[in-house]
Amino acid sequence: MPAGRSKQYTDIDERCRACEVLGGEEPPCVPADLIPKYQTEKGRDCPRVDVWPVNVDAARLALLLLGERGRAAFDKAFTLWEVRTTPTVEAAEEFLFFVTSIVQSTEVSEAIHPPKKPVAGKGAQRPQPPARPRPQRPVFGPR
Questions:
Q1: d(Cα 23, Cα 108) in Å, to the nearest integer?
Q2: Nearest to 20 by CA among 5, 9, 8
């Protein structure tokens, strides 16, 4: 059992309910110095993110779109969703818009393709060499 925990938990939900962040007695599952980071960057005290039940289908289809193999199965998965839910045309369009907005969100995009940090010396302007003196034209004849 990890240090600081008073008991073994059967599942993540039980552990989260026991966390002091949510009013329980157990210390958080992340180091204390990371909590301010979550507060600043994500606006919450806890790293756990739950997908609301209403968004589960959209999240699953969005995950398919993120990988090359999944993209090949997307049409079939979307058709299965349509058969199971029998949405109106407007609802299906709204659902597809939601799925694509998940995939195209900044958070997902940066998680998959983190922005490259500039490498020292690369991309920076090179210093220009000192100007060479212009050669003097020979003067022919008297000066």
A1: 30
A2: 5
Token look-up 């600043």 returns: 40
CA 11 vs. chain centroid, Å, equals 26
Q: Tell me how far the alpha carbon of residue 87 is from its chain's centroid.
A: 30
For the chain (143 residues), the mean pLDDT of every run of 10, in chain order, is 69 90 88 88 82 85 88 92 92 91 85 75 64 60 49
The one-letter amino acid code at 91 reads A
pTM (whole model) above 0.85:
no
